[in-house]
Amino acid sequence: MLEIRDDYLSDTYRAIYTVKFHEVIYVLHAFQKKSKKGIETPKNEINLIEQRLRKAMEHYDQNKTL
Q: Residue 2's pLDDT is what?
């Protein structure tokens, strides 16, 4: 998984995606970071990303061509 962070007009945005799959990129989550203290991604956001990663893996396995 890879996380991209970008600042725009004093706000921070993050996009988290995986490049694990051959020729396929799944965007798992993108959000605006709202916390003014700390740089960690909130736990509920991480849980959502992990859930979506599992679904992306299932989708890829069901739809890949041999």
A: 64
